[in-house]
Specification:
With 233 residues, the chain is α+β, with helices and mostly antiparallel strands. The chain has helices at residues 32-46, 52-57, 73-81, 87-93, and strands at residues 104-112, 115-121, 131-134, 143-146, 151-153, 164-167, 176-179, 191-192, 200-201, 207-211, 214-218, 225-230. The chain folds into two domains: 3-93, Helicase, Ruva Protein, domain 3; 104-230, Trefoil (Acidic Fibroblast Growth Factor, subunit A) (Trefoil). It is 16% helix and 24% strand.
């Protein structure tokens, strides 16, 4: 983290960069195992209270995740010796446009007790409706429920499309997936929810329900939902 420790980076428009690949990769074919490990090492050393963003982006539980990221004591000592600034300083001064996800309460796949093989999914973006799909736990199925009661679906990013959230427009029988910043009725985009319980819209009182393998809005029948991971505060 160059900025945190007093350094800077410069852009040289006319520079040329080359990369020479090895004949044989020094790791297994599943590179995700190594990238997750490296991401957690960076998070645990440098990101302070924002390390939870990395666990959220990778859909990894914050405890008992089974990923051995090794001994980081030397890296922590290096950061202390260099008197590096906090990651919050970086967000405030270097990259203030970056989204912060510290208001997350639950994250990961969202399953209904009546159809646990299906997960809430952002579906085809052009349809602007949340849907159900066989669970795979990657981008379109990463859900995020916040302290404010908003329910998001889709992959994360520093800015942009992940702002879409599940909305009850009080007209359609299907839950809408809209740009949260553009929904002016706050109650339409907020929900009552706790783990293993119903998801109730605060504007209409309707519930997210599974009917004939479809995600719909309707009278609450007691269907229970579970979001895979709980954010460690």
């Amino acid at each position: 983290m160059v900025w945190l420790c007093g350094g800077s980076m410069e852009v040289l428009p006319c520079s040329r960069v080359a990369h020479i690949a090895r004949m044989k990769k020094p790791y297994l074919s599943n590179i995700a195992l190594h990238t997750r490990r490296n991401a957690l090492r960076v998070a645990e050393v440098w990101l302070d209270e924002y390390k939870s963003n990395v666990y959220l982006a990778w859909n990894i539980p914050m405890e008992n995740h089974g990923i051995d990221y090794g001994d980081i004591s030397q890296r922590v000592a290096l950061r202390k010796r260099l008197q590096c600034k906090s990651f919050e300083w970086y967000l405030d001064n270097v990259y203030p446009e970056m989204r912060r996800y510290n208001n997350t309460v639950f994250y990961g796949e969202i399953r209904n007790s009546n159809a646990s093989h299906l997960c809430m999914d952002q579906g085809i973006k052009e349809n602007h409706t949340a849907t159900l799909h066989p669970c795979h736990g990657t981008g379109p199925q990463i859900g995020r429920f916040t302290r404010e009661g908003q329910l998001f679906l889709g992959p994360l990013g520093s800015t942009g499309e992940e702002t879409r959230c599940v909305v009850d427009d009080q007209t359609s029988s299907l839950p809408q997936l809209l740009n949260c910043d553009k929904v002016t009725n706050v109650k339409e985009k907020t929900w009552h929810f706790s783990q293993n319980d119903t998801i109730i819209n605060r504007a209409s009182g309707r519930c997210l329900e599974v009917a004939s393998s479809r995600l719909v809005l309707g009278p609450c029948s007691g269907q229970r939902w579970l979001i895979k991971n709980t954010m460690k505060q």
